[in-house]
Amino acid sequence: MRWDNLTEGATGPAALFGADAVVTRTFDTPEFRGITFHEVRARSIVNRVPGASRMPFEWTVNPYRGCSHACVYCFARKTHSYLDLDTGLGFDSQIVVKTNAPELLRRELGSPRWSGAHIAMGTNVDCYQRAEGRYRLMPGIIEALRDHATPFSILTKGTLILRDLPLLQEAAGLAEVGISVSVGFTDTALWRTVEPGTPSPAARLGAVRTLTDAGIECGVLMAPVIPFLGDRPEQLRATVRAVAESGATSVTPLVLHLRPGAREWFTAWLGEHHPHLVERYERMYAGGSYAPTWYQRQITRQVHELAAEFGIGPSRRGEARRIVTPERPAEEVPAGVTQLTLL
Known about the structure:
The chain is α/β, with parallel strands linked by helices. It is 33% helix and 17% strand. The protein contains twelve helices and eleven strands.
């Protein structure tokens, strides 16, 4: 592991953690069995998104690295290789916990150099994964954002967000707060195999209902739509219907994309569980990490038509996170832009 190269003794920007960098723990309880936690004291917590990114936000906060949700398609798997950790099972079971995240965030938000810009969370790994049930970093993070009236958004598959509902309500009274819950499909058989560590789709949609009933606007990122496994018309219809019934303010489809790290792990899973699809995936993703534009547009059109039928509108760019972004003239916005810019 590259801990020694990332602590204060390192030279240059690679020093991510304090000199007393890492405490490694395991817990012999059912919910954490097989998971190793690496507790670190980070040197910074507010991260700038690279200028070339497709993301509609500039700043992020990520209190964890690695994710016990164990989604086989997770695009963040590659980030584990920076610590010389395995991007497959290691990503699912070797969780880095930035234990000083709340205090560090409060200090950084209080700096005269901080502009008060929007902060996005859950854009790398889920901040409401199982580890959060033990480490409870998010209450302190939300309190710091609330106390500095900082606008923020959260994207999650975790129902644990409901624990912090009173704090979210307080923060929403002072600044823009946007919540999105990720539900790509409601097929339970598919869920059990590709997202084994997550709450069920029904439980996530139940969280959407609780949030919206409490006055917190909550959109659904319908992600990922998985080619040949979760894209049949009846599957899309069932998912959009369930999203509508949850009271979600918007639904935004996002077709599966396979970046390096995630691509290898997903392909291995596909070869084990659906070997007849390997060749079709090789053809579909021959051009890179993203499915062909025609396919993305097809899925977007189908979901938007279903959303209109069930009484919910498609989310515009940034809407689910309640970010104000300049509108481009309608004729310049390429079809499918919704699903390519949120994640």
